[in-house]
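re: ur msg from earlier - yeah i can do the S-adenosylmethionine complex, just paste it... oh wait u already did. ok heres what im feeding in:
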Amino acid sequence: MQIRALIFIPYRRAAAHGVCSKNNFMKIRNRHGHFNLIAPFYDKIFGSMRHDLLLQHLEARPGDLLLDIGGGTGRVAQHLAPAGVTTIVVDPSPSMLKSAREKALPGVRALAEQLPFATDSIPRILIVDAFHHFAQQELAARELVRVLQPGGRLVIEEPDLRTAGAKVIAILEKVALMQTHFIAPPEMADLFVGFGARLIAIDTENINAQIVLTK
Ligand SMILES: C[S@@+](CC[C@H](N)C(=O)[O-])C[C@H]1O[C@@H](n2cnc3c(N)ncnc32)[C@H](O)[C@@H]1O
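and the outut:
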């Protein structure tokens, strides 16, 4: 897999693969300015997390290419590198990406709704705590399934809306006018299955769920 080729495809040239018009792209891209503001403090606020389970669900092997979509500062991706996985952080926020690049992680500025990657090209895809920020979740799900390699793995970690803790987070983000939209894990799995993915498992731990898919 030519990572350089993947990284430098500008989104306009990739529109042939995508599903977003330019206007739509600009509208969605302007929704997450707050991440540009909090990027310098993000890792300190959110701390670290468990990575072993993610790697297990991803079935990630040394040399595998992995996209961390909505990967932000690379808070999660930085811990996957020791497993030999080549991780690219994909995020629309320039400040979050700057922080990821400072960790020596390659970054691509793009939206989940319009991914500049070829169909069936990516063996491993991860999304942690980002899906509820995607402005057009159906478009994003379709794009994610499109770029996923047949037999590959797509793992989404999200607060599990079936728990009280996640419900509180959803309410607080609504009050803070963050324009987030949480959906319960089975509903999310159905969304991806509708675009051709196959559900492997929904794993829950505390207030988070990991939705494990293939195609
Ligand atoms: C709460 S942060 C999570 C960052 C990282 N995954 C982590 O767990 O540390 C959500 C990220 O999603 C990104 N994001 C928001 N809308 C997006 C979209 N439509 N496509 C891709 N990423 C998006 C934001 O810029 C932000 O970096």
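cool cool. The chain is about 35% helix and 20% strand. ping me if u need the other ligands too
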